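R.M. (postdoc): so does anyone remember the format we settled on? I'll just put the structure tokens first.
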């Protein structure tokens, strides 16, 4: 039987994994979907709900990233993780929900790709800073040893 701390660590590790996998799926989706949309009419298929799928992916990855990254940020307090998270969330939402009406459809893909890259980077940096999913009890910060300059 697992202890409460071990079980919480497993849940956090799973969330951290999903906070990388989710934006990665979004990234692949953004790269592959234009090709599929170009090929589908050739094979007799059309009417694929691309915009809706972008919005569904965004609605899934946003809470996962928040649940995985915010607890780590509260532990290490490195603002770059929070900035990357905020940029990633903003770009994913902008790309999924607003770019067609504001900037036109062509901008949707690069905006979502940029958002996914920010979220993936934020998740990976957060994971590195918390170390072991936040389940260990030691410090992962690197202490720089003082350098000694020898006089000639």
């Amino acid at each position: 039987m697992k202890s409460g701390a071990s079980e919480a660590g497993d849940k956090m590790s799973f969330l951290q994994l999903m906070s990388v996998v989710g934006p990665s799926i979004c990234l692949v989706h953004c790269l592959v979907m234009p090709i599929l949309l170009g090929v589908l009419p050739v094979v007799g298929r059309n009417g694929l709900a691309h915009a809706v799928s972008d919005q569904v992916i965004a609605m899934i990855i946003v809470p996962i990233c928040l649940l995985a990254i915010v607890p780590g940020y509260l532990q290490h307090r490195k603002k770059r993780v929070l900035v990357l998270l905020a940029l990633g969330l903003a770009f994913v939402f902008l790309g999924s929900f607003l770019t067609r009406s504001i900037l036109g459809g062509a901008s949707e893909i690069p905006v979502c790709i940029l958002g996914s890259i920010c979220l993936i980077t934020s998740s990976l940096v957060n994971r590195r800073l918390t170390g072991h999913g936040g389940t260990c009890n030691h410090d992962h910060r690197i202490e720089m040893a003082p350098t000694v300059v020898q006089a000639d």
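R.M.: ...and that's the designed sequence above, right after the tokens. Also worth knowing: Helices lie at 4-39, 50-76, 79-102, 108-130. The chain has a mean pLDDT of 78.
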